[in-house]
Design brief:
489 residues; Amidase signature (AS) enzymes; globular; binds glutamine
């Protein structure tokens, strides 16, 4: 089983080579065997998954159409609402929260026949880059258990990397899909802002958040996007299909890619602190693309140096507003024996939120307060426009951009958690993409001498997931980094 792609599994289930129940059991067994050590899952929905798989097998037996995903097991980041399992955001404040509804993408996945096998660990409310900010558990990198898996969607990346799930869903506000995918040696896509409905994704930075997917094989990501992308009137930023037509991303992978001009951002590769092994792996990837007939030009994204500062004002400002709803009254944790009603609010929040979340609420509240709004928040919005324009200008001469995902490979557990600024600076290559609302995919392209995975990302034009998927798929056909598996004990 573990050599099968998601598409292989679906075909085998449909042709009744294996049953949906067997596929589900296989991954549940692997979770059982390895997740004590790796800590990818917060909840494993054992009974729910078995029941769903059984139902799908029955439908297949009866000759019913079971949808594009026909019994495919899938893991979901635990900041996406599920009515059948707790949605904790890895926070004490939502520890026992079971939403009364399913997120849009959960509906879409289930309508297509997917079997949800569990909810995965993350940095609390998706704030972080190592999954160390989870209030629930530590997640370890399958390639080296002393290293972080990246974050915030660390659990989903590990689930796929360690073959505890063939595919997984995450969210990316400033890199939270692409960076853990990179640290764990799998593919991860952040679609264009507006492509996938955020209805039922617990909000962090609403103008940046976007749901996306993890897999090994690019084709599996194309299939998942075919299922989860598309207009939803419950998310006011979801883009209508007539404005951004949704191609059949999977079928189109087979057609030749005519978009073969890739840009290399001068500012990215010359970035101080870019690990030399990463720079080297990307140079090698460029050579592979050249073999495929791709052309490269140097481009400039001159406002890159302001991206981290800009993001950490906008994201924290939005977070401070979004997280005001956790008040000890509406949802989740409430302090025992409060002194008065103000204490319900303040103490529930003081006890319910972890340190990183509190830090961001304070930063964001400060940036939005009267007297500082113009100096920080408004200024950051203007810088965001400049960053977006940098990309627009670059895309006048190239079809997509190739860039590093992270300046360093997976770092050691505990190495950066005491120094938030160091942690934030690691987001330099992923954050500009969210600020501009662009799609980007991270693709495995090598290993360090210590056997840690390395990746590049391909950044596309708005709503042009197709080009980056095609290029990534062409690259995967002539390389096998995505096929490497960590050795698990
Ligand atoms: N590392 C970034 C942060 O801490 C990105 C998080 C994310 O994409 N959710 O905000």
């Amino acid at each position: 089983m573990n050599n099968y792609s998601a598409i292989d599994i679906i075909e085998k289930i449909k042709s009744r080579d294996i049953s949906a129940q067997q596929a589900t059991e296989y991954y549940l067994d692997r979770i059982n065997a390895y997740d004590n050590q790796l800590g990818a899952f917060i909840t494993v929905t054992v009974d729910y998954a078995k029941q769903r798989a059984k139902q799908i097998d029955k439908q297949i037996e009866a000759g019913d159409d079971v949808g594009l995903l026909a019994g495919l097991p899938i893991a979901i980041k635990d900041n996406i609402c599920t009515s059948f399992a707790p949605t904790t955001c890895a926070s004490k404040i939502l520890a026992n929260y079971i939403p009364p509804y399913d997120a849009h993408i959960i509906e879409k996945l289930e309508q297509a026949g997917a079997v949800i096998i569990g909810k995965t660990n993350l940095d609390e409310f998706a704030m972080g880059a190592s999954t160390e900010n989870s209030c629930i558990k530590l997640t370890r990198n399958p390639w080296n258990n002393e290293r972080v898996p990246g974050g915030s969607s660390g659990g989903s990346a590990v689930a796929v990397s360690a073959d505890m799930s063939p595919v997984a869903i995450g969210s990316d506000t400033g890199g939270s899909i692409r960076q853990p995918a990179c640290f764990c040696g799998v593919c991860g896509i952040k679609p264009t802002y507006g492509r996938v409905s955020r209805y039922g994704l617990v909000a962090f930075g609403s103008s940046l958040d976007q749901i996306g997917a993890f897999s090994r094989d690019v084709r599996d990501i194309a299939l998942l996007l075919n299922v989860i992308a598309g207009y939803d009137n419950r998310d006011s930023t979801s883009v209508p299909d007539n404005f951004a037509p949704k191609p059949d991303l999977l079928a189109n992978l087979k057609t030749d890619n005519s978009a073969k001009k890739l840009g290399i951002p001068r500012e990215y590769l010359k970035q101080d602190g870019l690990d030399s092994e990463i720079a080297h792996a990307i140079e090698q990837a460029i050579k592979e693309f050249e073999k495929l007939g791709y052309e490269f030009t140097e481009i400039s994204l001159p406002h890159t140096e302001y991206a981290v500062a800009c993001y950490y004002i906008i994201a924290t400002a939005e977070a401070s507003s979004n997280l005001a709803r956790y008040d000890g009254v509406h949802y989740g944790y409430r302090v025992a024996n409060p002194k008065d009603y103000i204490d319900v609010y303040t103490s529930s929040r003081a006890e319910g939120f972890g340190n990183e979340v509190k830090r961001r609420i304070m930063l964001g509240t400060y940036a939005l307060s009267a007297g500082y709004y113009d100096a920080y928040y408004l200024k950051a919005l203007k810088v965001r426009t400049l960053i977006k324009r940098d990309f627009e200008q670059a895309f006048e001469s190239v079809d997509a951009i190739i860039a590093p995902v992270s300046p360093m490979p997976a770092f050691k557990i505990g190495e950066k958690v005491q120094d938030p600024l160091q942690m934030y600076l690691g987001d330099i290559f992923t954050i500009p993409v969210n600020l501009a609302g662009l799609p980007a995919i991270s693709v495995p392209c090598g290993f360090t001498k210590d056997n840690l995975p390395l990746s590049f990302q391909l950044i596309g034009k708005h709503f042009d997931e197709q080009t980056i998927l095609k290029s990534a798929w062409q690259y995967q056909q002539i390389t096998d980094f995505h096929k490497q598996r960590p050795e698990l004990s």
